[in-house]
Amino acid sequence: MWRDLAPVGRSARSGGYFRQPFTAAEGELRAWFAEQAAARGLALEADGNGTLLATWGSGDDAVLVGSHLDSVLDGGAYDGPLGVVSAFAAIDRLRGRGVVPTRPVVVAAFAEEEGSRFGVACLGSRLATGATTPDAARELRDREGVPLLDAMAAAGVEPRLGPAPWLTRVGCFVELHVEQGRDLVHRDAAVGLASEIWPHGRWRFDFTGEANHAGATRMQDRRDPMLSYAATALAAAATAGASGPRATFGRLDVAPNGTNAVPSRVTAWLDARAGSDDALEELVEEIARAGSERASGDGTALAVTPESVSGAVGFDVSLTARLARVLRPWGGPGEVPVVPSLAGHDAGVLAAAGVPTAMLFVRNPTGVSHSPAEHADLADCLAGVDALAAVLEELVA
User: Which parts of the sequence bind Zn(2+) 1 (predicted)?
Assistant: First the structure.
């Protein structure tokens, strides 16, 4: 399965992946998912939000398992697909042992988890749970101005946005994911569990000024929003500090975007994360305050708009403790590690919606993620499959 996925959406130049939702590359992945379901005789279902589901068994109180197939721009191979591939492989393990499930197992591939095309992370799961409304989703546009509904239709996905009926049949959700950090490396463990997800979000900073000639306009006569942005980015780094909260400006849009022109507008997107909801709010407020003060001195203006904000989420304590007992053989020298996640996941959206949820992590030797250098050793990936199979057997056998 991993060999089949390796070339899809991969850049020959960087080695990274461009698997944005409702594009040709993601369409290949969706076709691959359907082929894997058919090869195992699993019932295939697609909801109107773009999420794919493959069911082993029948009935309610299902164990949902899986992740997502889309990537960030120039992303790594493991973030998302590892969880989907491992879910199919874990079912193969259970069938090979003659396990007959007493409750259904549903493999999910959620749509637009990364928010790389339409700007809202975990869009498929947020629509399924009602965290994002259909009306709000209909207003979403990608960077070229293509509406979400048009992109879905062009990809052959019939849009029926809104809460998903299949979610009422789910008893719990277990998501396996490559670790995005090095906790498991430091603990010498191939597999771990997540305790919580830090609150995080995306805010759009619109700096506006006055376009002018780069040569003819004196420095003191300019109203340059690029200077306001640059000072705000430095303020964000200083406010977050060396450890603890995270503040990142990773995307810019500049108008008129000319080499010999002072910009009229700079739009920058802030990704911010902190250990509590209050700490996150304080972090963003301080960055916005610093930006507004600088803009006032530059003769520019700043407007800040939240685009996607997720509060702190703790995973189901009893389910996590139950799985920790099952996963002791994969925990390294001691108990299986239970660590926080500073990255957002569909698991966090479902947990916030009241679905009992747990997360498994597979060790990442460098900790690098959202990059072509993202990696997990094959031995650890196979350990993840065995661990996930043990978890599913505990829950359905």
Answer: 68, 79, 177
Confirm or deny that 206 is annotated as ligand binding. Answer: no
Q: Are 50 and 70 in contact (CB under 8 A)?
A: no
Q: Taking 80 as the threshold, does the pLDDT of residue 105 lie above it?
A: yes
Round to the nearest angstrom and report the end-to-end CA distance of the chain: 25
Q: Is 188 annotated as a binding residue?
A: no
Say if 2-198+312-396 and 201-310 have the same CATH topology.
no
What does the alpha-carbon distance between residue 110 and residue 132 come to, in Å, rounded to a whole number? 14
Quote the CA–CA distance of 200 and 205 in Å, as a whole number.
16
Which residues lie across from 360 on neighbouring strands? 176, 193
Integer-rounded Cα radius of gyration of the chain: 22
pLDDT at 102: 96
278 assigned ligand-binding residue: no
| Tens-digit pLDDT profile for residues 335-383 | 899 999 989 999 999 999 999 999 999 999 999 999 999 999 999 999 9
At the topology level of CATH, where does 2-198+312-396 sit? Answer: Aminopeptidase (3.40.630)
pLDDT interval class at 334 (50, 70, 90):
confident
Q: Which two tokens stand for residue 59?
A: 């009935």
Q: What is the torsion angle, in degrees rounded to the nearest 10, for the CA atoms of residue 12, residue 18, residue 24 and residue 27? A: 120
Look over the chain and give the mean of its residue pLDDT values, rounded to a whole number.
Answer: 96
The answer to whether the CB of 55 falls within 8 A of the CB of 104 is yes
Q: Is 273 annotated as a binding residue?
A: yes
Spatial distance between the Cα atoms of 42 and 289, rounded to a whole number of angstroms? 53
Four-CA torsion 35, 87, 362, 19, nearest 10 degrees: 30
345 is in an annotated binding site: no
Name the pTM for this structure.
0.89
Domain spans in the chain, listed from the N-terminal domain onward:
2-198+312-396, 201-310
The reported pLDDT for the residue numbered 257 is 97
Statement: residue 333 has pLDDT above 90: no
Of residues 388, 394, 341, 393, the one with CA closest to residue 82? 388
Of the candidates 93, 29, 104, the one whose C-alpha atom is nearest the C-alpha of residue 63 is 104
Grouping H, G, I as helix, E, B as strand and the rest as coil, residue 31 is helix
Domain 201-310 architecture: 2-Layer Sandwich (3.30)
Residue 370, annotated ligand binder? yes
Beta bridge partners of 67: 109
| 177 marked as part of a ligand binding site | yes
DSSP string for 45-96: EE-TTS-EEEEES-SSSEEEEEEE----TTB-SSTTHHHHHHHHHHHHHHHH
Q: 248 has which bridge partners?
A: 271
